[in-house]
Design a protein that fits this description.
Bound molecules: 5'-O-[(R)-(carboxyoxy)(hydroxy)phosphoryl]adenosine, zinc ion
Number of helices: 11
CATH architecture of the largest domain: 2-Layer Sandwich
CATH superfamily of the largest domain: ATPase, nucleotide binding domain
Number of strands: 11
Shape: globular
CATH class of the largest domain: Alpha Beta
Strand order of the largest sheet: 5-4-1-2-3-6
Order of helices and strands: EEEHHEHEHEEEEHHHHHEHEH
Structural class: alpha/beta
Length: 362
Amino acid sequence: MQSHGILDRTMRVLGIETSCDETAVSVVDNGNSMKSNIIASSMKLHAVYGGVVPEIAARSHIETIIPTIEESLRQAKTDWEQIDAIAVTYGAGLGGSLLIGVLTARTLAIVQDKPLYACNHVMGHVYANFINSTSLSGYSLPSSDPEFPLLAVIVSGGHSQLAFFTDHFNYRLLGRTQDDAIGEAFDKVAKILGLPYPGGPSISQAAMLGDDKSYNLPKAKVGKYDFSFSGLKTAVLRLAQEQIGESYDFPSYRLPERLNEAQKANIAASFQRVAIETIVDKVLLAVEEFSPKCVLLAGGVAANHQLRQLLAESVSCPTLVPDSKLCTDNGAMIAALGGWQIRCGLKSADPYRLDINPNLSM
Ligand code: KG4
Ligand code: ZN
């Protein structure tokens, strides 16, 4: 689809994102100008369990969705009169969590008489890269829209995939993970090492004190643009058991108390290097084959500094990354995606019928 049909007046979109443990609401004008970005996370409630507990996440969304919407409108210094449309994540994600966002958005669309746009969460991560201006402080944003054709590298807790976009909403999925997503591997390796949830930031921090060449961990051999991270996670488990001189029967939950800090840091650094190199190797192949004008990093793992750095050093075309606050789940990426759906003339959803799709893929 061509990006024609661009409207000549400002389209102000309220975006709602509740696919996992973040209740996030944002106001974005024209798919690129961020007016507010409020994120209420229930992450602390899940940390004691070492991962997101779906029922706790859903209950937390119920409690926080309305105050978060109100706070977002307040921060944007706007009101319902000035909102032109509502965008909401309808998949992929946790069923109970998605339901709260979608039912709230449907109700508001009917009551406030606004068009409703259904957004794919993964596509939303890509559109975080289109936010290039804001009245909010503390964001480091690009100054223009990414140019097509572009390669999107989507690396999150639920997804690892490469997509080649020739225009808005016109893309070819080149490859995806065959098992665990890269963020999931960070989270699982953190658990093996006894590092706090979410694993991405805690692995990165531990890795700073380690030597990333201390251990040789394997890179999976899968299809040209596909990924696999479950073997790497198992290799970390075996390595940790070997390091403390125990057999492969040794229970993983007892590893953290037996590993010393240097072993933890070295394993974290070696794992992070291999996980990141795996992504960058495939990106280099795709850049050579498809010659994109730029590479976009998207998703929670895009917040990883080592990944950002290695990609920027290795790839011949410009690499774009969202501000790290826009890499992990947020409402701004959904409001931006909704804004581009409007700009490109995509159809709005039926507010009486929009259903969730927990397994939605790109
Ligand atoms: O995009 P996101 O917020 O949620 C999903 O759509 O999955 O991504 C969350 C994932 C988690 O697995 C988390 O460990 C990872 O992103 N993550 C990171 C970093 N920050 C968050 N992974 C590596 N390095 C980071 N700095
Ligand atoms: Zn996400």
